[in-house]
Design brief:
Number of domains: 1
Distance between the termini: 39 Å
Number of helices: 7
CATH superfamily: Vaccinia Virus protein VP39
Low-confidence stretches: none
Strand content: 15-25%
Strand order of the largest sheet: 3-2-1-4-5-7-6
Radius of gyration: 16 Å
Largest sheet: 7 strands, mixed
Helix content: 25-40%
CATH architecture: 3-Layer(aba) Sandwich
Structural class: alpha/beta
Number of strands: 7
Order of helices and strands: HHHEHEHEEHEHEE
């Protein structure tokens, strides 16, 4: 929890309580349903919670926003972001039932009312969203195929609506493959190390993809 306080010192008491409860809940559920690497569970706050919250350093989602999380797994980045932005609706999608069960149970346990867990393929989700987020799920070209048509054309943030993806490693080829096909789009890469000083983040980036 010290890491969360370090970078997000203005949390209210309810948010502090919700973040504090995550560790025991994930340890419990991970023992039943393996959604987080066993070797990573002790570093839950750094490698999963804080990593998810890098998106909150990049953008402040406005009240009334709708955010779609593709391949949410055990609830990242949805659950940390939903705690931080209680007036934003998060739709967390995964095709694997046991992962959605974990998201549902943990959301209920900490009284997160702004998360809608969905066991579906992304392509079948209805409605429009301001932003689509993901965490190391698939290449950009595939993410766009699944959800490119689900992004609303009505912008009300300072940033244009689009994809905000947590990524690692060398992304040059992935970016070029996408831009070769989608010439009306722009990709901005932001290094997470500018937000967080821990070594884990030195190879982590955010890719922000939007129409020009």
């Amino acid at each position: 929890m010290e890491l969360i306080y370090k970078y997000f010192p203005d949390l209210n008491s309810e948010q502090v309580s919700q973040f504090q409860k995550l560790y025991d809940l994930y340890v419990e559920w991970n023992s039943k349903i393996n959604v987080i690497s066993r070797k990573d569970i002790d570093q839950l706050y750094e490698k999963h919670v804080l990593h998810s919250l890098a998106i909150a350093k990049f953008i402040t989602f406005l009240p009334g926003s709708r955010v779609l999380d593709i391949g949410t797994g055990g609830g990242f980045p949805t659950i940390p972001l939903a705690i931080l932005f209680p007036q934003v609706e998060f739709v967390a999608v995964d095709s694997i039932a046991k992962k959605i069960k974990v998201v549902t149970e943990i959301s209920n346990a900490i009284s997160l009312v702004n998360v809608q867990p969905c066991r579906q393929r992304v392509e079948t989700i209805e409605g429009k969203f301001d932003f689509v987020v993901s965490r190391a799920v698939a290449p950009l070209i595939e993410l766009y195929q699944w959800a490119g048509q689900k992004i609303s054309d009505k912008n009300f943030h300072e940033l244009k609506n689009g994809f905000i993806c947590l990524k690692g490693a060398d992304l040059a080829e992935e970016k070029q493959v996408f831009l070769n096909t989608h010439k009306k789009y722009k990709i901005e890469e932001v290094f997470i190390s500018q937000y967080f000083e821990e070594e884990f983040f030195t190879s982590k980036s955010i890719l922000y993809v939007h129409k020009t």
